[in-house]
Amino acid sequence: MIAAVRSHPLSAYLILTFVGFWSCIALGTIAALHFWVPILGALTPAIAAVLVTGLTAGEPGIRLLVRKLGKWRCNPVWYFVVFGLPIAEGLASLELARWLGVARGTPLAAFRALGPMLPALWVVFLFAAVEELGWRGFVLPKLLASGRSALVVSLIVGSIHEIWHWPLILLPHQMLSDVPIVAHSVSVIAEALVLTWVFQSTGGSVLMVALFHGSTNIAMVVYDQIDPGWMPWFKSGMTLLATVGVLALVGPRLGSGEVGSRPTTQCT
Questions:
Q1: CA neighbor of 255 nearest in space, from 155, 158, 151, 157
Q2: What is the DSSP secondary-structure string of 39-84?
Q3: How far apart are CA 241 and CA 248, in angstroms?
């Protein structure tokens, strides 16, 4: 078993992550387990990444993996990107929705709704970090090291990440059951390119990727001011538009030319 993990670490990670997460969703249908098991499922990307890294690279490898969460000394522009871009996308979507007559609230209403949530926002970033430690901390670097282009690797990671979410969309009474699968897939796959750009441009900082991921989740309070029937399409459309903008700005290498050559943009 250990030999198989060492020979095929990516496959081992994916099996552990998918089986663990999907099993937790199934067990979560049991009333007594409804609260705690889904939380355990959300931890599976990080658990699988640490387990596989430990079996393939030992304690030094785990230290290197976890250290990516501590890369915070960055050019301040990246903090504006990871916190500002998701909010800007949401506000732009809301303004467009208001112009089209499908909004049900205003930016002020969105920020008022956010107020009571402020003491617990750290939980959003915590779960984003746990998830990204696996997808961007473990999977992304290994696929980039395979020689594939950053664009192709991003599409692969985004597609796998989206399929991982599918039970939450396709099964009834789940967190994302009311979200069209096409809209959600476009959002996750397109955003994977932006996350690769952030990851590579900050020298492999999982922290910055997690902050972007968490900010995207928090920005949903803005999208909630759009008619529910339209909201997923505004979210996917704006995410796709932002991704096209990033590609136009930095090219298909998605910031890979900056790693190792422009230390002022990277995190330590």
A1: 151
A2: HHHHTHHHHHHHHHHHHHHHHHHHHHHHHGGG-----THHHHHHHH
A3: 11
Tally the C-alpha atoms within 13 A of residue 106's C-alpha that lie toward its C-beta. Answer: 3
DSSP 211-251: HHHHHHHHTHHHHTTB-TTTHHHHHHHHHHHHHHHHHHHH-
Q: Quote the CA–CA distance of 173 and 176 in Å, as a whole number.
A: 8
Residue 206 CA to residue 184 CA, distance in Å, equals 23
Asked if 136 contacts 49 with a C-beta cutoff of 8 angstroms, the reply is no
Query: pTM of this prediction?
Result: 0.94
Neighbour count for residue 234 (Cβ, 10 Å) = 23
What is the identity of the amino acid at 208?
M
Structure-block tokens of residue 211: 């902050």
Per the DSSP assignment, residues forming a β-bridge with 226 are 103
> How does pLDDT run across 226-268, given as a tens digit for each residue?
999 999 999 999 999 999 999 999 999 998 754 333 444 578 8
